Amino acid sequence: TEAVLEVRGLCVDYGVGANAVRAVTDASLTLHRGEVLGLAGESGSGKSTLAYALTRLLRAPGVISGGEVLFHNRPHGGDPDGVSYAETVDLLAADMVKLRQIRWSQLAVVFQSAMHALNPVARIDAQLTDVLKAHRRQMDAAARRDRAVELLRMVGISADRLRSYPHELSGGMRQRVMIAMALALEPQIVIMDEPTTALDVVTQREILEELMLLRERLGFAIVFITHDLSLLIELADSIAIMYAGRIVERAGADELFHAPRHPYSLGLLNSFPALHGAKVRMEGIPGSPPSLTALPGGCAFHPRCSFAVDRCRTDVPELVLPAAESAQAARLAGDRPDQPRVAACWLQ
Ligand code: ATP
Ligand code: MG
């Protein structure tokens, strides 16, 4: 299927000049229309930074220092303020007018801090209808209300909750409200950064499963960010693994599960009990991730890697196309270096 979002060579720093640390290094990803792409990696690996950067929601001291994020917009015509023709937009180069047309309407984000993203002094129905009021000017009040009820029902919240304030809802329900708001304008992409501490794994799984069902109905693509690789193995189509700011492997979910190529992916796979792992413990991997101010040379994972050889101290394993994808990619686009890539550690 065709790509809806292509991230190429994205680099993000915190700070500038001598004090800058690189939080995302040369990240490339392709999100296909309607697919679920999972992004996994230990705390601090740069997952949220990547998500904030590609949506241009990154705040100072974060700085995007390189790369492209191509959004292939295929508008479905529901948005009177948006464009009605197909276009490709580099989100990193787009002006604010363009970004406003795209964000929320076409590319919606549910961030890790969803709890704080809701207005604490506004009722749920008002927050939903405000989104519709701002972006769907042809809707009258009754239509907005109907739509708000429908959206909440879609995410499993009954209409009697419409008059609630955020603090009257559980963490899981607030997350569902955020998803309803994200889906209000029928976006082509939903990016969801898992709230790691606020929700238990069972609730998280339920919410992701519901999101998957909605995706089948509405056809949007999902980028789902989580610590829980086992969740992604089950539910995602493809998975990218981040370590110390780099995407070290990208593969289909089955492929990653059955034949991980990077030792870090293998370690992550071994770290997770199948379902009810409450806390993230990297039991399969000794040690902890490096500080960004003192990144090891070569492959940043090498000090923790039981397969490391001399070369790993100086060279970063190249990301290459896996055989199955490379044939398809070559057919589609010639031998472009920006196609979905998978790390092939030279050990395997
Ligand atoms: P988690 O799983 O805990 O959410 P993450 O993978 O989302 O982690 P990020 O929050 O993107 O990781 O952080 C990546 C790196 O950038 C970390 O080393 C973090 O300390 C650093 N970082 C994040 N925000 C800032 C900031 N505002 N200023 C400086 N450094 C930051
Ligand atoms: Mg994060």
UniProtKB/TrEMBL annotation:
Protein's membrane topology: Peripheral membrane protein
Similarity comment: family membership: Belongs to the ABC transporter superfamily.
Primary site of residence: membrane
Keyword DNA-binding: no
Keyword Transport: yes
Organism field: Streptacidiphilus cavernicola
One Gene Ontology term of the molecular function aspect: ATP binding
SMART domains: AAA
Keywords assigned by UniProt, alphabetized: ATP-binding, Cell membrane, Membrane, Nucleotide-binding, Transport
PANTHER family reported in the protein's UniProt record: DIPEPTIDE TRANSPORT ATP-BINDING PROTEIN DPPD, OLIGOPEPTIDE TRANSPORT ATP-BINDING PROTEIN APPD
Subcellular location: Cell membrane
Matches recorded under PROSITE patterns: ABC_TRANSPORTER_1 (PS00211), ABC_TRANSPORTER_2 (PS50893)
Taxonomic path: Bacteria, Bacillati, Actinomycetota, Actinomycetes, Kitasatosporales
Protein name from the UniProt record: ABC transporter ATP-binding protein
Residue ranges occupied by any ABC transporter domain in the UniProt entry: 7-269
Superkingdom classification of source: Bacteria
